[in-house]
Request: fold
Amino acid sequence: MTLADLAACLLVLGLSAYLVLGGADFGAGLWDLTAGGPERGARVRGIVKFGMGPVWEANHVWLIFVLVVCWTAFPTAFGSITSTLYVPLFAAAIGIIFRGSAFALRGEAATIAEARVLGGTFALSSVLVPFFLGAAVGGIASGRVPVGNASGDALTSWWNPTSVTVGLTTVAVGAHLAAVFLAADSIRARQPDMVQAFRARALGSGVVSGLLAIVGLFVVRDDARSLYDGLTSGGGLALVCASAVGGLVTLGLEWRRRFDWARYTAALSVAAIVAGWAVAQRPYVLPGRLTLHQAAASHATLVALLISAAVGMLLLIPSLWYLFRLVLRGKLDTRFGPLTAGDPRAGS
Amino acid sequence: MSHALWVAASSLGGPVDQSYLLEARQMQALSFAVHIPLVCFGIAFPAMVLFVEGLYLRTGDPVYLTLAKRWSKVLIVLFAIGVVTGTLLSFELGLLWPAFMAKFGGVFGEAFALEGFSFFLEAIFITIYVYGWDRLPRRVHFLSGIPIVITGFAGSLMVISVNGWMNNPVGFTLRHGTVSHVRPFAALFNDNFWHELVHMYVAGYVVAGFVVAGVYARAWLRGRRDRYHRTALVVALSVAALATPVQVLVGDWAARTVAERQPTKLAALEGLGRTTKGAAIHFAGIYEGKTGDVKGGIKIPRGLSLLAFHDPNARVQGLDAVPRRDRPPVNVVRFSFQTMVAIGTGLALLGFVYLGVWWRKGRLPGSAWFYRAVVVAAPLSVTALICGWVTTEVGRQPWIVYRVMRTSEAVTGAGGIPVGYGFLVAVYVALGAVAAVMLRRIARRPIEIAGAEPGS
Reply:
C-alpha cells in the first residue's frame, strides 16, 4: 500500500464519518420538515432538537476534514473537482450556512412566524445539502470531472442519472440513520410514542434507501459502466454485499426495537458502501482521467500529512469517545419538550 | 506530474479568461470579513469565560456563575456560526482559486490538516463545556474548557501560517512552473508567520474585549449598574485595555517586517511613489498615481524612514522599484492601513483612561462619555480588524503567492461568479440581520442570579 493509498483511506474514513454523523443530522432535518403542522409535529421536533443539540458541530467538522485532506494529498484532483462542480458545491456550502445558522438561532424564536421561517430554512436546507453533495459525488464517480481549471461541463457534470440517483440515495440514507438514532434517543428521553414514530420512519426510510441503492446499481450500469464493473467484481462486490447484509440486519434490529445495535449496523452499512465506491474506482481518483498516484502530492507532503493525522487521531479519538460517552449516557441532555412555535421553553 | 496534466488540460497552461476576477476577490473578502470577527471570539472569549468561572470556583459567588453561563451560551452560538462561515471559506478556496489549490495545496496543506484536528477538538470540548453546566463535576467542567482555549489559539495559528506563507512563500522549489522539493514544515514556519500570528492573536483580545465591553457599557448608560454588569464590564474592559497597548508595539514589529520583506507593500501603505532617503510620512491625503505623490494630508518629514527602519535617514524603496503591473491598488491599502492605525491609537488611549482611573481610584470611570466611547469602540475595533486584513491582503496584490503566482493565474475559469457573489451578499445580509436580532434578544433576557448553585 502506497502513501497515496493511505491518504485515500483517510478520505474514505472522513467521508464515511461525515455521511454517518453529518448525514444523520441532515436526515433529522428531513423528519423535522415532514413532521406536520406546528401542533402535530411538536413532539417529533422536540426529539430532533433533543437528539441533535449537543453533537452537530462536532459531526460537521468531518466535512472540513475531508476537504483539507483532499486538497493537501490530491491538490490537482481538488482543483479539478471544485472548479467543475462549482454549482452543487456552492449550493451545498450556502445550504450549510443556512442550516447551521437557523439551527443555532431557532431556539431564540419568539413568535410562531419566526419559528416557522427558521425551522423551515433549517429543514429545507437539510434536504438540499446532502442532495447536492451526493450529486457532486455522482459526478466524480461517473467520470464527468476532467483534469483542469473548470474543464468539465458546468451542468451535466452533476445533473445526470448517476448524480441524481446518488443525491437522492444520500438524502434517504441520512433520513434512515437519523430515524435510527432518534428512535434510540427517544428511548433515552422516555417517550414511548416517539420510539414508535421513529421506528416506523426507520423501517420506511430503510426500505426506501435499499430500493434506491438497487435502482442506483441499474442506473450506473447504463450511465457509468466502469463504476458498475468495479462495484460488481472483486473487493467492490464484497463491500456492496457487506453493505446489503448490514442494511438487512439493521431492518431486522429495527423490527425488534434494538435501536442501540441498529445504530452501529446502519453506520457500518453506510461505511461499506463508501469504501466500496473507493475500491470500485481504484486506481483512479477521477475515473478514467487521473489516478491516485498521478494526483498525489509530493512524498514529503504525504508523510507529513499521515504523521499528523496519526498524531491528531491519538488526540481526537479519546476526545470523541468521551463526548459520545457523555451524550449516550444522557450526561449532556437538555430536557425534552415538544418544540412548538413560540414555546418559551424552546429557548432554554 | 499531475500538475503537468493540469497545465495541458487548461487553456495553454496560462491564466484562464475570467472577466470577474475583481468580483471573485470581493466575494472571498466578504466571506472572510464575516468570518474573522467570529475568529476573534474563538481566540479570546473562551479564556474570558473560563476566567469568570475560575472566579466562581474560588469565591463561590453566584454572580460569577451566572455571568460565565450566559457568556458560554453566546460562545456556542458564535462558534456555530463560525463553523458554517468557515466551511464556506474552505469551499471557496477551491471554488474561486482552483489553480492556486491545485498547484500549492500540497505545500501549505499541512497547516490546514493540523488546523482541522484542532478545530475538531475545539468543537468537541465546546459542546462538553456548554452542555455540561451543572451536569459535570465543577472541576471537570472547568478543565473541559481548557482545550477550547488551547485549540482556539492553535487553530488560528495554523491558518495564519498559511497566510504568512502566501506573503513569504518558502518550503518548495519551483522549476519550469512545477513545484518540487516540498518541505511542509519550512512552509509552515515562514518568516511572516510570527508577527502575523501575534498581531492577530492580540487583535482577538482587543476585539472580543471591546465588543463585549460595548454591550455592557450600553446597559450601564441605561442605568443597569448592578454587580453583574460591573463584573462583566471590568473583565471585558481589562482584557481590551491590556491588549490594546501591546497591539501598538506588535503593529510596529509587523510594519518593520513588511518594510524588510515586502517593500512594495510598505510603499503602498505609505503612498511612496519613488525610492527616497529620509522618506516622509503623510497622514490622510490621496495618493496620485501619475505624480507618485500624496496630495493633501499632513506631512511629517523623515517620518517613514524613522518608523519603518528606526533611522530618520534610511532609504525606503518606493513603488517605482517594480513595474506598474506588479503594484497593489495604493489608495485602498493606504486608506485601510491609516484607518487601522488611527482606530488602534484611539482604542489604546481609551484603554489608558480605564487603566489610569482603575489604578488611581480603584473603580470604573464615572463620566458617561467614557461609556459612550466604549460603545463606539466596539464597532470600531471590528473595523480596525477588517482594515488590517484588507491592508495585508490587498497589499499583497497582484500576487496570491507573493512574487510566485498572480491572483489572475489562480482564479477559476468557471462562470457564474456575479450570480454567486450576489447570492452570497443576500445570504449574509439576511444572516446578519437575524443574528443581530437574536443576540439582542439573548442580551435582554432577564438575568436570574442563581442561588447557591449545586455543582452536582
